[in-house]
Amino acid sequence: MGESVGDETVAVPTGRVTLSDRRTQRSWAVEVASFRMSAFPVTQEWYARVTGERPSTARGGRLPVEGVSWWDAIRFCNALSRREGLTPAYEVRPGTGNADWDTAADGYRLPTEAEWEHACRAGSTGPRYGPLDEIAWYRGNADDRLHPVGGLQPNAWGLYDMLGNVWDWCWDLYDAEVYGTYRVLRGGGWSDEHWSCRASVRRRSHPTFRIDDVGFRVARSMPGA
């Protein structure tokens, strides 16, 4: 892995995924168009290269960036888009606590919750895309710390660390009627028990929340998808 490890993206094919919520006992099917997703969680080196900032508690260029809020993540997406000459996906509206997503933009963005789960499963139907110790850093094997991206096995579509290491922010509101502006988190982290590291697990947090086991990965819409 080179100096810029972590900034490559892979194509995720179209598909259909069924999301479920344990609190409401509800499930719903979503059609997912093809898109691109970063092969790894955004690394500290990549984040620093784009923003000039190093917010993480643990330090290491190949470690996932953590200590980043949902707002930090969408600002990174816009900054990365501008850096690469793409149209930013988000319009941040100061004072409203919200942002608008221009779905026609070709720039970087956070995956939707449905995109995330579809990408995580990579055609598999079980709770995980492989044996947990082979694919994820979690409480059982992480030695109580964050690990460099890409150290374990990827899923069938070439995506690493979809489970474990750091939780990923997603675009979606969790449940606006109950939780207001709280956004969805997916994937589990290095300090979580095995039951949190499953493709279907949903968590939520306030978009300003920062902690040492939450990061993100980026996505891009495919032209004509």
Tell me, what's the shape? Answer: globular
Average pLDDT works out at 94
State the major sheet.
4 strands, antiparallel
Number of helices: 5
Task: Work out the helicity level.
Answer: 10-25%
Write down how many β-strands occur, each being a DSSP E stretch of 2 or more residues: 12
The succession of helices and strands, N to C, reads EEEEHHEEEHHEHEEEE
Q: State the end-to-end CA separation.
A: 31 Å
| Uncertain residue segments | none
From the alpha carbons, calculate the radius of gyration and give it in angstroms: 16 Å
Across the major sheet, the strand order is 1-4-12-7
Strand content: 15-25%
Structural class: alpha+beta
What does this structure look like?
With 225 residues, this protein is of the alpha+beta class. Helices cover 17% and strands 23% of the residues. The strands form four sheets. It has a four-stranded antiparallel β-sheet. A hairpin with a 4-residue loop joins strand 5 (90-93) and strand 6.
Short description:
By secondary structure, this protein is of the alpha+beta class.
Sequence-ordered SSE layout with sheet pairings:
Blueprint: E1 9-12, E2 15-21, E3 26-32, E4 35-38, H1 44-51, H2 70-83, E5 90-93, E6 98-101, E7 108-109, H3 113-121, H4 132-135, E8 167-173, H5 176-179, E9 183-186, E10 202-205, E11 214-215, E12 219-221
Parallel strand pairs: 8-11
Antiparallel strand pairs: 1-4, 2-3, 4-12, 5-6, 7-12, 8-9, 9-10
